[in-house]
Amino acid sequence: MLHIAVILAGFTGIFGKLITINDIGLVWFRALFSMILLYALLKGSRKFRTYGRRDQWRLIASGLLPGLHWVLFYASIKYSNISIGVISFCTSGCFTALLGPLVAGKRLYLRELLLSLLTVLGVGLIFAFDTGYRLGIALGLISSVFGSLYMLTNERLIRRYDAAMINYYQMMGITLGVGLLIPVYVYALPVAVRLIPTRTDIGYLLVLSSFCTIAIYVMVAEALRRLSAFTVSLSFNLEPVYSILLAILFFDEGRQLNMAFYAGLLLIITSVSLQLYVSLKTSKIK
User: Fold this and answer.
1) Residue 198 above 60 pLDDT?
2) I want to staple 84 with a disulfide (CB 3.0 to 4.6 A). Which of 25, 32, 80, 274 is the partner?
3) CA-CA distance, 242 to 34, in Å (whole number)?
4) In terms of Cα–Cα distance, which of 171, 147, 2 is closest to 85?
């Protein structure tokens, strides 16, 4: 289930490039469409659950984390390219390992830290390959911090709430939170802002909302019932493999990448493979 979610996540960068509206508008429409679709599905299947006001606001507030993660992730792609945006996201495993003891009171494992540092080394190689992409990489790194905080938060929420309902309220939180930021964004960048989607954009947004948002987030939430936030975060480091292959196929991004990029990508894949090996070995021992 987790790996299917990772494969679907590989398409998010592609849609980020195809959709012509600005990053903040893309995130707002993605969350709005996801919230509406999820509400219809839950009501239609009679699986919609009602929580107390305090629980509802707790879940809505948790949506600010993936909201900020999305805005910065798509901004990273807009200011660089798909490959750079998704590669920067690979540092989320490192941030999860470091923030886990602070946010969730978890123990800091040396193995997790070493595997994460291997990923960071890979990103460091990529960071150095072209100074023109440094703004995009910096935005991607900040995005990873919020992505890690989201994983750690959801790891705790899934123990008390239904996965689909968590996703529904978080989409509501993103819609409200990002909606409040749009006027500030328009004021700061009045010339460059484009917020009205075309018909083609709406089609892409519907696919992005249903398959690459609702499906992914529900599956990730279910995976967190049996896997740690670190394992989930590190597994998502495989996302760039799919995104980069798609970017090369559709946008011919292979011409923009050099050997340092591919060496960094190899280190990232190695860290994921080692974590997979350790997880399987631990599972067999248990």
Assistant:
1) yes
2) 80
3) 23
4) 147
